[in-house]
TrEMBL record:
GO cellular component: membrane
Taxonomic lineage from the root: Bacteria, Pseudomonadati, Pseudomonadota, Betaproteobacteria, Burkholderiales
Protein name: Ser/Thr protein phosphatase family protein
Provenance organism: Caballeronia ptereochthonis
UniProt keywords, alphabetically: Hydrolase, Membrane, Metal-binding, Transmembrane, Transmembrane helix
Coiled coil: none
Calcineurin-like phosphoesterase domain mapped to chain residues: 159-327
Length: 385
């Protein structure tokens, strides 16, 4: 019931935003009536397709559901840019008209009003095309060195390849995953870290598309922690499937690695909010490290959400690897991530703990990345100078 009420409000707000865009752009555009009618029709279609795409997971016929998802989510990505640019145009026109009024000049700037009404949808198309390309290409490799004090010589150069937030689902399928796996294996890492949100859907619908993850290969194996989307999609069944694929799933647990005579601890916690889905899965960094060797120079925590960092620092971890934020994925959402998470992307030092937040290896929702490129992250431990 609550979900239905939210969806109804979402549709209502969406209709109001579409009306705002139509009223602000269509009358001002210097085009003929047929093009104005076409623009209005496209906005009406967008009002229909966006909620249809958002609700596509509830459609049992999988090929049809995926087509609706592609259509609706692509429309959502485009309309996000269109709405933002329309608002930016109104702000610009307000200040231009204000300056004209203060100067005693005629207020209106008809040429600017007319051509900016055309520039807004043109820029929205351009931004969406660039964002689509960025989202659908294989994530580039990002290399990061993490300086560790008193790092044993055997661990100097120890390499972890992190992938996160792939979101296998309506628009990300097996071929996309295969390209990621090939790139990761090509880096020949000592360890692979998969930091959650691998899937957006059920095991029966997506098992074939996640199967390439069984091919992940590293000296010490591939380790995985759950993200919030695993809990939306049936976490217990996905945990069993990931383990069947040969991934080491860490549920508030750790393992001790022996790397050329030096010890390193790799721990993993369930998603920060997992306890609201299953109290037995409450995220607990202290429990994850309990019983680990006290003299281990390196203690790495895999935690889907960056906000696990406070508890991780208190538990004595050296490095936390997280994802979840997507770096904001595209404007304007980049500006709002910090309202929920302490870190958005990149490497930071927090209370003696290094935290690396990946922008994600896939994308969620609209196939669009703008200003927040995806990544496959090669993390190298190096001795602090």
């Amino acid at each position: 019931m609550r979900r239905s009420a939210f969806f109804i409000r979402f549709i209502g707000i969406g209709i109001l935003f579409h009306i705002y865009v139509g009223v602000r752009l269509i009358p001002d555009a210097p085009v003929g009536l047929p093009l104005k009618v076409l623009a209005a029709a496209l906005l009406v279609a967008s009002v229909v397709f966006i909620p249809l795409g958002m609700a596509a997971r509830s459609i049992e016929a999988q090929p049809l559901a995926d087509r609706f998802a592609w259509l609706g989510l692509t429309a959502l990505g485009f309309f996000s840019s269109l709405l933002l640019l329309t608002f930016a145009r109104d702000v610009m026109l307000f200040f231009v008209h204000l300056v004209d009024w203060l100067r005693g000049a005629p207020v209106g700037s008809p040429v600017l009003v007319a051509y900016s009404a055309v520039a807004v949808p043109a820029l929205a198309v351009l931004f969406s095309a660039i964002g689509f390309y960025n989202a659908r290409r294989r994530a580039p490799i990002v290399s990061v060195d993490v300086p560790i004090e008193n790092l044993p010589a055997a661990l100097d150069g120890f390499t972890i390849v992190q992938i996160s937030d792939i979101h296998v689902g309506p628009t990300i399928k097996r071929g996309y995953v295969e390209r990621i796996v090939a790139a990761v294996n090509g880096l020949k890492p000592d360890l692979i870290a998969v930091t959650g949100d691998v899937v957006d859907g059920s095991v029966p619908h997506l098992a074939d598309h996640t199967r390439p993850l069984a091919g992940l290969s590293a000296r010490h194996g591939a380790f995985l922690v759950t993200g919030n989307h695993e809990y939306y999609s049936g976490a217990d069944k996905w945990i069993a499937e990931f383990r069947r694929l040969g991934l080491n799933v860490l549920l508030n647990q750790h393992v001790v690695l022996n790397h050329d005579g030096a010890q390193a601890v790799v721990a993993g916690v369930t998603d920060y909010g997992a306890g609201s889905f299953d109290p037995a899965h409450r995220s607990d960094p202290a429990k994850a490290i309990s019983g680990a060797p006290a003299d281990a120079a390196v203690r790495v925590l895999l935690a889907h959400q960056p906000r696990s960092a406070t508890a991780a620092a208190e538990a004595g971890f050296t490095l936390q690897l997280s994802g979840h934020t997507h770096g904001g994925q595209f404007l304007p959402w980049n500006c709002f991530v910090r309202l929920q998470q302490p870190f958005v992307a990149g490497l930071v030092k927090f209370k003696g703990l290094w935290v690396y937040t990946s922008r994600g290896t896939g994308y969620w929702g609209p196939p669009k990345r703008l200003g927040a490129p995806s990544e496959i992250t090669r993390i190298r431990l190096v001795a602090s100078s």
